[in-house]
C-alpha cells in the first residue's frame, strides 16, 4: 500500500475511534443532563403552583377549587396526602396511580424515576406549606419525551461528526500529499541514479529530513559517478599497460617462429621476451595487490611500530640497489618516534618511495623520521609540473617510469592505515615525499 494511503488510513481510523468514544460518552451523559434539567424545571413549576395554591385555596375544604385549577395546567401531576397515604387528585389515568402505589413510590420519597408498566417518569415532589399538613404536589414528565430529545440531539451530533470527519480527512489528504510528493520525486531521481543517468538529476523541493536525505542521495550519486569513472579509467589504463608488453612478446615470438631473425637478433628477441614477461608479471602482481588493499580492510593487522626499526629494515633492502646506482642513502630517526599500522604493508609503502628516490637520484637520498612524520627525498630531477597533480593515481608515470602503480600502492596503504602522503620539492633539488604517520 502507498505511504500516503497508509497515513490517511491510520489518521481516519484514529479519528473514528476518538469520535466514537466521544459520541458514546456524550450520548450517555446527555440523558442524565436532560433528566436533571427536567427535574429542576418541574421543581420550579411545582413551587410556583404550590405558591398559587397556598395563596388562593388555603383550606382543605376547597379541594374542588384545586382540582379545576390544576386541571387547567396541562401537566401530569398528583396531589398526595402523606398523612392518609392517599392520592387526592391526579391528572393521569388511574392505572398509573395504581402502578405507582403498588411500587410504593408515594411513600418512599427517595426514588426519582418512577416506573409503571413500560413507561418511566421523571418526578419532582413539592411539599405544601406548612409541612405539617402533609400535602404534596408531585409533577411528572415521561422519560420518553426526554429520550426523544436525546435521539434528536444525537442525530445532529452524528451529522456534525460526519462533516468534521470529511473535513479532517480532506485536510489529512492535503497534508500527506504535501509530505509524500517530495518522496515520490526523490524516488524518480533514485531511478535515474539506478540507470546511471547522473547528469539528468534535478534538485527537488523539500524541507527538513527529506532535504537531508536528498543531499545524502546526491552525495552518494556523485561519489558513485566518480568511482565508476575511476574504475573505467583503471580498466582502460590496465588493458593498455598489459597490451603493450604482450604485443612486443607476440612480435618477437612470431618473428622467431617464421625465422625472420638472424642468430644475434633471435637471441636479443628472446631476451626482450623474458624482460617483457617479467614486466607483465610485475604489473599484474601490483594490480592484484592494489585491488586487495582497496577491497579488504581485514588484511590489515595494526601493531606498534618503532620508526627507527622500520627505517633500518628499509635500508637493509635498498642497499644493494643503491650501491648499484652509486647513490648514498642517509638516514636520521628520532628513537622516540612510534606509531600504529600494519608493519609489513607500511614497509612496502616506504620501500616503494625509497626505490623511486634511488632510481631518480643523482647521488643522494635522505630518509628522516621525526615526531609524526617520515620524509624521503632525493637530489634528482624532481617531478614535472604536469605530472604533479596526478602522481598518486594508478598507471601515472614519467618517461622512465615502470608500472605507474608504486605510488598508488603507497598511498593506499598509508591512507588505509590512517596516515597521509604528500609530495613537495626537496631542498636537495629532487622530490620530497612526506608521510604523515597515523596517530
Ligand atoms: N623521487 C622521484 N623523483 C622523480 N620522479 C618520481 C619520483 N618518484 C616517482 N616519480 C615519478 O612518478 C611516477 C610514478 O611512480 P610510481 O607510481 O612509483 O611508478 P613507477 O615507479 O612504476 O614508474 C614515476 O614514473 C616517476 O615519473
Ligand atoms: Mg615506483
Please tell me about this protein's structure.
The protein has a five-stranded antiparallel β-sheet with strand order 2-1-5-4-3. A five-stranded mixed β-sheet has the order 7-9-10-12-11. The protein has a two-stranded antiparallel ribbon with strand order 6-8. Helix 4 (143-194) packs parallel to helix 5 (208-257) and helix 8 (343-360) runs antiparallel to helix 9. The mean pLDDT is 91. It has helices at residues 3-56, 63-71, 94-102, 143-194, 208-257, 263-295, 307-325, 343-360, 406-416, and strands at 76-81, 86-90, 113-116, 119-127, 135-142, 303-306, 328-333, 338-341, 364-370, 373-378, 420-425, 431-436. It has 439 residues and is of the alpha+beta class. It starts with a helix and ends with a strand. The chain has three domains: 3-151, 2-Layer Sandwich (Beta-Lactamase); 208-295, Signal transduction histidine kinase, dimerisation/phosphotransfer (DHp) domain (Helix Hairpins, Orthogonal Bundle); 301-436, Heat Shock Protein 90. The chain has nine helices and twelve strands. 58% of the residues lie in helices and 16% in strands. The structure holds adenosine-5'-diphosphate and magnesium ion. Adenosine-5'-diphosphate binds at residues 352, 356-357, 360, 378, 380-383, 391, 396-398, 401-408, 430-431.
Amino acid at each position: 500500500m502507498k505511504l500516503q494511503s497508509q497515513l490517511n488510513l491510520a489518521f481516519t481510523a484514529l479519528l473514528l475511534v476518538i469520535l466514537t468514544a466521544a459520541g458514546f460518552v456524550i450520548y450517555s451523559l446527555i440523558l442524565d443532563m436532560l433528566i436533571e434539567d427536567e427535574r429542576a424545571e418541574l421543581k420550579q413549576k411545582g413551587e410556583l403552583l404550590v405558591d398559587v395554591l397556598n395563596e388562593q385555596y388555603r383550606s382543605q375544604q376547597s379541594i374542588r377549587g384545586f382540582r379545576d385549577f390544576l386541571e387547567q395546567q396541562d401537566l401530569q401531576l398528583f396531589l398526595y396526602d402523606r398523612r392518609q397515604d392517599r392520592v387526592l387528585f391526579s391528572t393521569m389515568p388511574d392505572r398509573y396511580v395504581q402502578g405507582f402505589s403498588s411500587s410504593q413510590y408515594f411513600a418512599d420519597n427517595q426514588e426519582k424515576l418512577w416506573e409503571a408498566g413500560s413507561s418511566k417518569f421523571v418526578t419532582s415532589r413539592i411539599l405544601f406549606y406548612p409541612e405539617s399538613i402533609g400535602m404534596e404536589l408531585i409533577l411528572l414528565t415521561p422519560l420518553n419525551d426526554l429520550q426523544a430529545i436525546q435521539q434528536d440531539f444525537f442525530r445532529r451530533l452524528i451529522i456534525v461528526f460526519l462533516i468534521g470527519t470529511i473535513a479532517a480527512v480532506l485536510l489529512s489528504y492535503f497534508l500527506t500529499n504535501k509530505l509524500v510528493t517530495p518522496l515520490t520525486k526523490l524516488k524518480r531521481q533514485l531511478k535515474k541514479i539506478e540507470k546511471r543517468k547522473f547528469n539528468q538529476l534535478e534538485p527537488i523541493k523539500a524541507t527538513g529530513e527529506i532535504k537531508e536525505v536528498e543531499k545524502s542521495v546526491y552525495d552518494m550519486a556523485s561519489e558513485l559517478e566518480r568511482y565508476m569513472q575511476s574504475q573505467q579509467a583503471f580498466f582502460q589504463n590496465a588493458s593498455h599497460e598489459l597490451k603493450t608488453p604482450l604485443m612486443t612478446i607476440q612480435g618477437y615470438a612470431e618473428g622467431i617462429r617464421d625465422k625472420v631473425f638472424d642468430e644475434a637478433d633471435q637471441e636479443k628477441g628472446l631476451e626482450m621476451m623474458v624482460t617483457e614477461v617479467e614486466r607483465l608479471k610485475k604489473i599484474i602482481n601490483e594490480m592484484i595487490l592494489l585491488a586487495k588493499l582497496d577491497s579488504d580492510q581485514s588484511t590489515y593487522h595494526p601493531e606498534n611500530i618503532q620508526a627507527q626499526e622500520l627505517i633500518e629494515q628499509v635500508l637493509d633492502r635498498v642497499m644493494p640497489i643503491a650501491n648499484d646506482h652509486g647513490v648514498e642513502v642517509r638516514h636520521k630517526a628520532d628513537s622516540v618516534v612510534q606509531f600504529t599500522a600494519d608493519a609489513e604493508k607500511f614497509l612496502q609503502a616506504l620501500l616503494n618511495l625509497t626505490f623511486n628516490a634511488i632510481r631518480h637520484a643523482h647521488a643522494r637520498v635522505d630518509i628522516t623520521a621525526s615526531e609524526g612524520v617520515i620524509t624521503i627525498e632525493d637530489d634528482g630531477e624532481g617531478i614535472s609540473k604536469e605530472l604533479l597533480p596526478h602522481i598518486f593515481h594508478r598507471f601515472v608515470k614519467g618517461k622512465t617510469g615502470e608500472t605507474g602503480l608504486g605510488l598508488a600502492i603507497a598511498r593506499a596503504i598509508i591512507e588505509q592505515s590512517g596516515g597521509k602522503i604528500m609530495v613537495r620539492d626537496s631542498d636537495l633539488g629532487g622530490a620530497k615525499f612526506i608521510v604523515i604517520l597515523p596517530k
